[in-house]
């Protein structure tokens, strides 16, 4: 299998590009939900998972997630997002990028995924310092997703045969 994405027929490249844009719309709409639940702050992450019912100055009341609720969130997010990254990694493999860059794009998002959602579990167990690790790994995961999408769209729509 020695072919590259930019060598595919135009109709397939356009179809895959539309798929990537649709996938991006769904993935990044989750960032809007994250904005509403955490305000993109470490304190928001902690409050969303551990609650704030003892904070008398809180504007909105949150209760600690139940173990079952947290397990459901971790389960559904890790399985679906890892499948998304697997599909994108498969596509990245067929780009004309250097192997070291392809390898990074194929591995890093999954590492960040495990660290982010594993961190939520650790925070729920009482390790509140992990909220900073969750924030950093979450940012890396989303930046990796952006890099994946931009790279693939470039390979499908702009890259020309050498």
Short description:
The chain is mostly helical.
Question: In words, what does this structure look like?
Answer:
With 162 residues, this protein is mainly alpha-helical. The protein is elongated, with a radius of gyration of 19 Å. The protein has one domain. The chain starts with 9 loop residues before the first helix and ends with a helix.
Give me some keywords for this one.
162 residues, elongated
User: What count of domains describes the coordinates?
Assistant: 1
Strand content range: under 5%
**Helix and strand sequence:** HHHHH
Our count of helices gives 5
Cα-based radius of gyration, to the nearest Å: 19 Å
Q: Could you say which structural class the secondary elements and strand pairing correspond to?
A: mainly alpha
Count all strands and give the number: 0
- Give unreliable regions as ranges: none
Q: Characterize the largest beta sheet: strand count, sense, and whether it forms a barrel.
A: none
Mean pLDDT equals: 94
The end-to-end distance, rounded to whole angstroms, is: 18 Å
> Roughly how much helix do the residues carry, as a percent range?
over 70%
Choose one word for the global shape.
Answer: elongated
């Amino acid at each position: 299998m020695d072919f590259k994405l930019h060598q595919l027929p135009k109709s397939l490249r356009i179809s895959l590009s539309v798929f990537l844009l649709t996938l991006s719309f769904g993935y990044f709409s989750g960032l809007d939900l994250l904005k509403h639940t955490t305000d993109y702050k470490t304190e928001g992450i902690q409050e969303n998972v551990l609650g704030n019912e003892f904070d008398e100055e809180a504007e909105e009341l949150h209760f600690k997630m139940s173990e079952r609720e947290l397990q459901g969130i971790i389960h559904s997010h890790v399985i679906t997002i890892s499948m998304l990254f697997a599909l994108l990694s498969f596509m990245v493999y067929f780009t004309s990028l250097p192997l070291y860059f392809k390898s990074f794009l194929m591995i890093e998002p999954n590492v960040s995924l495990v660290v982010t959602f594993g961190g939520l579990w650790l925070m729920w167990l009482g390790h509140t310092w992990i909220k900073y690790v969750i924030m950093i790994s979450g940012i890396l995961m989303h930046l990796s997703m952006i890099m994946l999408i931009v790279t693939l769209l470039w390979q499908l729509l702009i890259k020309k045969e050498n």
